[in-house]
Design goal:
heterotrimer; A mainly alpha; B mainly alpha; C alpha/beta; A: mainly alpha; ABC transporter involved in vitamin B12 uptake, BtuC; 16 helices; globular; disordered C terminus; C: alpha/beta; Rossmann fold; five-stranded parallel β-sheet; 13 helices; disordered N terminus
C-alpha cells in the first residue's frame, strides 16, 4: 500500500497513530498530580517535537545515507525561518506561501554551500559546512541586522506592508499566521476528569506536514536513489570505478536535506513568528547531529526519537525548580525530603544541561546504535527465550553511519 | 607601521593560544584517531586549576577579635579572613605566594591534568577507539557538558578574576628597542610571557616526539597505525601517555590564559569550534600544520580587526577565521599540511 | 478575526469563525466552565494565580538570572504575606496586604531563557500554555526582552521586563502589554555626561569599542550624543564581535589614536574581558594630551564588577539602583533598606540592580491588578499607565503612558578602590535626577514603532 513494503507501512502507520494521539499520549498524568510537571502535551512542546523531528529526519537523509557529516545544517533552518518571516511581513499571513518560500530559499542556499563543500569529504567537508554556517550566524547577528533583526531576531510589526491581508487586526494587534483562516495558535482543550488535553491547530498542521515529509523520506530511503546514496557512503572509490560520479548524488541529498531544514524553519516561524539568529549557531547544528546519533543514524525513526528526547529534556527538565522538588517529596520525612532534593537538584532546573550531557554519554556507551537499538534489544528480548538474556551482548547491530 | 607591528604581536599572542589548544587536539586525533569534543573542557579545567589554586592559597581564618565586615550600613557574612599562608609565612612572603598563584598553578596543573587525562582515557575514551567518529563526538560532547556543569555548580557562571603576578603588570616598550618613538609599541609583559611559554611547550612536544624512542613509535603510529601494529608494537599502551600529554598541554594553556581571559565554565566550548577549525586548516594529523594554522589564523584575525580593514569590508572581523578556513580548504584539499586519507572517509 | 491563544486551563475555543473544526469535544466534566469566558488569556481560578519568571539559568548570565530568581521568590513571599513584607511596607500604593493578589495565592513557575530569543520565547510560551501564567517577567538582555515582549503581546499576557537596557524595548519595539522598570541607554548618556564633564573636563577625545549588536549600537549612540554635546570629540568607534574573548586587536590601536578616553560599550563577559585587558595593556596608566587616560563603562552590574576584579577600580558607570542608596543619600530612596534587609535575611547577600528591578516589577504588577480589580491585561495596562509611585527604592517614579517606560533617578557609580568584601565593589558617585534623565516621548532614538493596543488574548 502507498508503495511501501509491509514493515515500512507498519512503521508509518505507527508514526501516524502517534501523531494523531500525541495530545493524549504526551499528557499521561492528571493535572492535579505532582507528576503533571512531566506532561508534554502543550502546544509549544508538541510543535517543537514535530519540527525538530522533521529537521532531524532531513539531516539523516544526508548523514545517515551518504555519511557526509554536515556541521552547519542549522544555517538552512535559519535561512528558512528568515524567508518565512519575510513572507509574513511582505505577502500574507497565510503559512502556505511562507513554507514554500522557506523550503525553496533553503534549497538554493544548500545548493550553493553544498556545491562548494562537497568538493571535500570527511572532516574537511564538516568544517566547510561549519564555516559557512558560522559566517551566516555572525553576519545575521551583526552586519545583516536590517534583514535579520540581529540579536532580537526578525519579528513582525504593526506596520508591515502586507500585500494580501491586513497590517493590523481590528483590535490593533499583529495578525496571526493561519492556514486559509485556521489560526496556528488556536487550540481546543478537552477536560476528562483530572486530565486535560490540548488540541492545537498549529500542532496538527505541523503533524500533517511531517506525515507527508516522513512518507517521502521512507520512499526515498527505499528508492534506487536511496541505494545510490548508500553506495556513496559505503565505497566511493568503487562507485567511481563503475563510471559513476558520486558528487551529483551527494549534492542532491545535501539539497534535499537542506530543504527539509528550511521547511522546519518555516514551520517554526509559522508556529511562532520570530526568527532568531541563534538558530544558526554551531550549537544548533551540533544539536541536530546529536539528535540523529542519539536516536540512531541511518534509521528511519531514530532521528525523530532523538529529537524528541532532546527537546523534551530541554523543555521539561529546565522548568523543574526547587519548589517543585519540595512539593514532590513533601510527603516524606524532612531528612529524606532534603536529601532527595539535594541529590536531584543539580540535575533539574538550571542543571538540565547536566542531565542532557549524562544522557548523551549513557546512550552512546550502552546503546551504540542509539535509542533505536534499545527498541530492537527489547523486541529481541521478548522474541527469544527467557534464558538468553545474553541478547544484550548479542550480534553486532547494523552500524550507524559516521 | 607601529599599528602593524602591534597587530603582529597580537596575532602571535592569539595564535599561540590557538596553537597550544590545536596541538593537543591533533595529538589525540593523529595518534588515537579520536575526535575529542571534550578537549575544550580540558582547557577549561586547566584554567580552573588556577582558580582553585588561588582559592586554596587565600583560604583563611577570621582573626580573633575581628568583627563582621559591614558595607553601606549592612553586614553580610563574616569578617575579612587572614589567609593561612600569610599567617604561616608572614604577610610579606605569604602575599607573594598568593600573588604568584597562577604560575604556581602550572606546577600543580601538570600532575592534575595528567591524572584527568589518564582517567578519561582509561575510563572512557579507550572503549571508543574502534567506534565510529560520530559516537566519539557524542560521548565526548556529553562528557564536556558534564564537566562544565560540574564546574558551574561549584564556581558559578560569572567570570572569576585571576590576575597575573604584580611583576608582570605593565608593558614592555618594543618601540624603543626597534627604534620607534617611545611609548608607541607597548606590549603587556604577561602576554609576552604567554608567547614564550607557548613556544617552549610547542618546542618541548616536538622535541619529545622527535628525539625519544617513544616519540618515534608514536610518530610511526600516526603515519601508519596498522603497520606499526603488525610490527608487534602495542601502540595502544602508548595511547594513554599521549592522551595525558594532550591533557597537560591543554590544561597548561588554560592556566596561563587565565590572566588574559577571566575563566568561566563555558570558556572551553567557546574555544572548541575554533580549535577544530585550526586543526583542520592545519591538516588532519599534522602537528606542524596545527601550529602553523594557529599562528596564521591568529595573525589574520588580528589584522581583520583593524579599523581600516573593517571600513573596507564591513563585518570581516566577525567571519575572517571561517573565510580563511574555506579558502585554505578549497585551495589545499587537506589543509596546510594534511596527509592523504586521514579522516577523509 | 480575534486572537486566540488558549492554555490548558483555558477553555474550549474551536476555530468556529473559520468553519474548521479540529476536534469535537464530547466530554465535559469538572468545574472548568466555572471561570469560563472571562475574556482574557489564562484567567486565574478563584484560589491561585500563576506568574512566570523567565530568567537565564544556563550560559554566561546564569548568575544574574539566579539573582533575579531570588528577588522573584522574595516578592512572591511578600505578596503571600510571608516574611517581613519588604518594600510592600514602604510602597506608596498601599493596596497589597499579604493576601496574594485579589485574594488568590501567588504561585510561580520558572523557565530558562538561555539568553537567546528563541529559547526565551519557547520557555515563555510553555509557561503561558502549560502552566497558565498570567504574567511573564525577568530576563537579562534586550534581545530577549523584546522577543518575549512581542510574544506576550500576541498571547495576551502582561510582560514586566527584567534587566533590559536598550532603547528599543520601550522605543521602536515597544508593545502595549509590555512594561519596563529598568532604565535605558538614553538615560545612561544623560546621567553620565555631567559626571564625566566634572571628572574629566570638556576637552576630551573619546574612542568607542562597541559590542556589535543592537544594545551596543544603542549605547554607543547615546554616549556619543551626550559626550559630544559636552564638547568631547569622538576619535573612532569600532564594533567588536560579541564573545570575542581576546580584545587585544581592538585595544592596541587605542593608545596611538590620540584618544584620551576609552568608552567600552560592552556588557557581561565582553565587558569583563575588554576592561581587564584594557587595564593590562596599561591604558589606565597612560598620559595622553597632557591628561590622565580614562576608561568609561556606561553600564555595568555588580556581577561584572566582581568578574573584572581590581580592574574596575575607579571606572565610572551608571546603574538603575544600588543597595546603598538609602543609607548614603537619604530618605528619597525609601524602600531600599527594607528590601536589602529582607533580601539579606533570606540570602545573606545584598541584591543586585537586576534583582531590585524584578522585585519592583512583580510588586507593581500585583498592585496594578489590585487597583484594577481584575487580571485582565487591558485593565492592568490602564492601571499601570501614568502611575506615579514612590517607595520602591528608586525615589519618585513615573510609569509613562506614552511608552511604558519608568522615569526615575539614575545612579552614577564608580568601581571602589579597596573593596571591603565581595559585595562592596561599587561606590555611589552621584545621582542624576529624574527631571534630567527624562526625555520627550517623541525623541528620535525611540521612533519607528508604536504601542498598539493592549491585547487580552482569548
Amino acid at each position: 500500500m502507498l508503495g511501501l513494503k509491509k514493515s515500512d507501512l507498519r512503521l508509518y502507520l505507527i508514526v501516524l497513530a502517534l501523531l494523531i494521539f500525541a495530545p493524549f499520549l504526551l499528557n499521561p498524568f492528571p493535572d492535579t498530580s505532582g507528576l503533571a510537571q512531566f506532561n508534554a502535551g502543550y502546544p509549544d512542546l508538541m510543535q517543537k517535537l514535530i519540527i525538530f523531528g522533521l529537521f532531524a529526519v532531513g539531516f539523516n537523509i544526508l548523514f545517515g545515507l551518504t555519511g557526509y557529516l554536515s556541521f552547519g545544517h542549522a544555517a538552512f533552518l535559519g535561512v528558512g525561518s528568515y524567508a518565512g518571516v519575510w513572507m509574513f511581513k511582505l505577502l500574507t499571513m497565510n503559512v502556505v506561501p511562507a513554507l514554500i518560500v522557506s523550503t525553496l530559499t533553503a534549497g538554493v542556499f544548500a545548493l550553493l554551500i553544498g556545491f562548494i563543500s562537497l568538493r571535500r569529504s570527511g572532516i574537511y567537508f564538516s568544517i566547510l559546512t561549519l564555516a559557512f554556517a558560522q559566517m551566516s550566524y555572525s553576519l545575521a547577528y551583526s552586519v545583516l541586522t536590517p534583514i535579520t533583526g540581529g540579536e532580537t531576531g526578525l519579528q513582525l510589526s504593526l506596520d508591515d506592508p502586507r500585500i494580501i491581508g491586513i497590517s493590523r487586526t481590528e483590535s490593533g494587534n499583529i495578525p496571526v499566521p493561519h492556514f486559509f483562516g485556521l489560526e496556528m495558535n488556536s487550540a481546543t482543550t478537552i477536560d476528562f476528569g483530572a486530565w486535560s488535553f490540548t488540541f492545537s491547530a498549529g500542532y496538527y498542521f505541523a503533524a500533517v506536514i511531517f506525515a507527508v515529509a516522513f512518507f517521502l523520506t521512507i520512499r526515498l530511503f527505499r528508492s534506487p536513489f536511496g541505494l545510490m546514496l548508500r553506495a556513496v557512503k559505503s565505497n566511493q572509490s568503487r562507485m567511481s570505478y563503475t563510471g559513476l560520479n558520486s558528487r551529483p548524488y551527494a549534492l542532491a541529498a545535501f539539497v534535499i536535506s537542506g530543504m527539509y531544514a528550511g521547511l522546519a524553519g518555516g514551520l517554526m516561524v509559522a508556529m511562532d513568528p520570530l526568527a532568531g539568529a541563534e538558530r544558526m549557531l554551531w550549537t544548533a547544528s551540533g544539536e541536530v547531529v546529536l539528535m540523529t546519533i542519539l536516536g540512531g543514524a541511518g534509521t528511519l525513526i531514530g532521528p525523530v526519537l532523538g529529537a524528541g528526547v532532546i527537546a523534551y529534556l530541554e523543555s521539561i527538565i529546565s522548568t523543574i525548580n526547587e519548589n517543585v522538588l519540595h512539593q514532590w517529596f513533601g510527603g516524606l520525612p524532612d531528612w529524606a525530603e532534603n536529601t532527595l532534593v539535594t541529590v536531584v537538584e543539580p540535575f533539574v532546573g538550571e542543571g538540565w544541561h547536566l542531565t542532557l550531557g549524562a544522557v548523551f554519554m549513557l546512550v552512546v556507551i550502552f546503546l551504540p546504535g542509539g535509542i533505536v537499538q534499545a527498541g530492537r534489544l527489547i523486541a529481541r528480548f521478548f522474541r527469544r527465550n527467557r534464558g538468553e538474556v545474553g541478547a544484550l551482548s548479542g550480534e553486532p547491530e547494523r552500524r550507524p553511519g559516521e | 607601521m607601529e599599528a602593524i607591528i602591534l597587530q603582529i604581536l597580537n596575532g602571535l599572542d592569539k595564535g599561540s593560544a590557538y596553537a597550544l589548544i590545536a596541538l593537543g587536539l591533533t595529538l589525540i586525533f593523529g595518534t588515537l584517531g579520536v575526535v575529542n569534543f571534550a578537549h575544550g573542557a580540558l582547557f577549561m579545567l586547566g584554567a580552573f586549576v588556577a582558580v582553585t589554586m588561588q582559592r586554596v592559597l587565600t583560604l583563611g581564618f577570621v582573626p580573633e577579635g575581628a568583627t563582621g565586615t559591614s558595607a553601606g550600613g549592612f553586614s553580610f557574612g563574616t569578617a575579612r579572613e587572614t589567609p593561612y599562608v600569610e599567617h604561616w609565612f608572614g604577610p610579606e612572603v605569604g602575599g607573594t605566594i598568593i600573588d604568584w598563584a597562577v604560575p604556581i598553578s602550572i606546577l600543580v596543573a601538570i600532575p592534575v591534568m595528567a591524572l584527568i587525562g589518564v582517567a578519561m582515557e582509561r575510563g572512557l575514551i579507550r572503549f571508543f577507539y574502534k567506534r565510529p567518529h560520530a559516537d566519539q563526538i557524542l560521548v565526548t560532547f556529553g562528557l564536556a557538558i558534564v564537566l562544565q556543569e560540574i564546574i558551574k555548580h561549584y564556581y558559578g557562571a560569572n567570570p572569576i578574576p585571576t590576575p597575573a603576578p604584580d611583576v608582570f603588570v605593565g608593558s614592555f616598550d618594543f618601540g624603543q628597542v626597534l627604534g620607534f618613538d617611545p611609548y608607541t609599541i607597548m606590549y603587556p609583559y604577561w602576554r609576552l610571557v604567554y608567547f614564550g611559554f607557548a613556544a617552549v611547550v610547542i618546542g618541548g612536544v616536538f622535541a619529545f616526539l622527535q628525539f625519544t624512542t617513544f616519540g618515534m613509535v608514536v610518530r610511526a603510529g600516526m603515519a601508519d597505525r596498522e603497520t606499526v601494529g603488525l610490527l608487534g608494537i602495542d601502540i595502544d599502551k602508548r595511547f594513554v601517555v599521549m592522551f595525558a600529554l594532550a591533557a597537560i598541554v591543554a590544561g597548561m594553556a588554560g592556566v596561563m590564559y587565565t590572566p588574559i581571559l577571566s575563566p568561566n565554565y563555558h570558556m572551553g566550548m567557546d574555544f572548541l569550534v575554533l580549535s577544530f577549525v585550526v586543526v583542520v586548516v592545519g591538516g588532519m594529523g599534522s602537528l606542524p600544520g596545527a601550529v602553523a594554522a594557529g599562528f596564521l589564523l591568529g595573525i589574520l584575525q588580528s589584522f581583520a580587526s583593524m579599523t581600516e580593514v573593517i571600513e573596507l569590508i564591513p563585518g570581516i572581523n566577525q567571519v575572517v577565521i571561517y573565510l580563511v578556513a574555506i579558502i585554505v580548504l578549497l585551495t589545499r584539499p587537506r589543509g596546510l599540511m594534511g596527509r592523504k586519507g586521514v579522516m577523509e572517509e | 478575526m480575534k486572537d486566540r491563544n488558549v492554555s490548558r486551563r483555558g477553555i474550549l475555543k474551536v476555530g468556529a469563525a473559520t468553519g474548521v473544526t479540529l476536534a469535537t469535544p464530547t466530554i465535559f466534566t469538572g468545574a472548568v466552565w466555572a471561570d469560563a469566558h472571562t475574556g482574557f488569556t489564562n484567567a486565574p481560578g478563584p484560589d491561585v494565580v500563576t506568574l512566570g519568571f523567565n530568567v537565564p539559568q544556563t550560559g554566561a548570565y546564569a548568575d544574574e538570572g539566579a539573582d533575579e530568581l531570588r528577588a522573584f521568590e522574595l516578592a512572591v513571599e511578600h505578596l503571600n504575606g510571608e516574611g517581613d513584607g519588604g518594600m510592600l511596607n514602604t510602597f506608596s500604593e498601599q493596596n497589597l496586604d499579604g493576601s496574594g493578589i485579589l485574594g488568590r495565592r501567588v504561585e510561580f513557575v520558572t523557565g530558562d531563557t538561555q539568553t537567546s530569543s528563541d529559547a526565551a520565547r519557547s520557555s515563555a510560551r510553555s509557561m503561558i500554555e502549560r502552566d497558565g501564567a498570567i504574567m511573564i517577567s525577568g530576563g537579562s538582555s534586550s534581545g530577549v526582552a523584546i522577543a518575549v515582549q512581542g510574544l506576550c503581546q500576541d498571547a495576551g499576557v502582561i510582560f514586566m521586563a527584567g534587566l533590559t537596557h536598550s532603547n528599543d524595548t520601550t522605543g521602536k519595539d515597544r508593545r502595549a502589554n509590555g512594561f519596563r522598570h529598568f532604565f535605558n541607554t538614553e538615560m545612561s548618556g544623560r546621567a553620565l555626561a555631567p559626571i564625566l564633564s566634572e571628572q574629566f573636563g570638556n576637552d576630551r577625545k573619546a574612542y568607542h569599542l562597541t559590542a556589535d549588536y543592537t544594545w551596543g549600537w544603542s549605547q554607543e549612540g547615546s554616549m556619543r550624543t551626550y559626550t559630544e554635546a559636552l564638547g568631547w570629540e569622538t576619535v573612532n568607534t569600532v564594533l567588536t564581535p560579541v564573545g570575542a574573548g581576546d580584545f587585544s586587536a581592538y585595544l592596541t590601536p587605542v593608545a596611538n589614536s590620540g584618544a584620551d578616553v576609552l568608552v567600552l560599550n560592552h556588557y557581561g563577559g565582553d565587558m569583563v574581558n575588554s576592561l581587564t585587558q584594557a587595564v593590562q595593556f596599561g591604558l589606565r596608566d597612560l598620559t595622553v594630551n597632557g591628561k590622565d587616560f580614562a576608561i568609561v563603562v556606561p553600564l555595568y552590574s555588580e556581577l561584572m564588577a566582581q568578574g573584572a576584579g581590581t580592574a574596575i577600580a575607579g571606572i565610572p558607570g551608571s546603574q538603575n539602583w544600588d543597595w546603598k542608596l538609602e543609607n548614603q543619600l537619604g530618605d528619597r530612596y525609601r524602600g531600599t533598606n527594607a528590601f536589602v534587609e529582607s533580601f539579606a535575611a533570606k540570602y545573606n547577600r545584598p541584591p543586585s540592580q537586576a534583582a531590585q528591578t524584578c522585585y519592583a516589577q512583580t510588586i507593581l504588577y500585583a498592585d496594578a491588578v489590585t487597583r484594577a480589580g481584575s487580571f485582565n491585561p487591558c485593565a492592568v495596562v490602564e492601571a499601570l499607565e501614568g502611575l506615579e509611585f514612590d517607595g520602591l527604592g528608586n525615589g519618585p517614579t513615573l510609569y509613562r503612558a506614552d511608552d511604558h517606560q519608568c522615569f526615575k533617578d539614575v545612579v552614577v557609580v564608580r568601581g571602589k578602590e579597596n573593596p571591603e568584601n565581595e559585595f562592596d565593589l561599587v561606590e555611589i558617585v552621584n545621582v542624576t535626577t529624574r527631571e534630567d534623565a527624562t526625555y520627550a516621548p517623541d525623541h528620535p532614538d525611540f521612533q519607528g514603532g508604536e504601542l498598539g493596543t493592549c491585547n487580552p488574548g482569548a
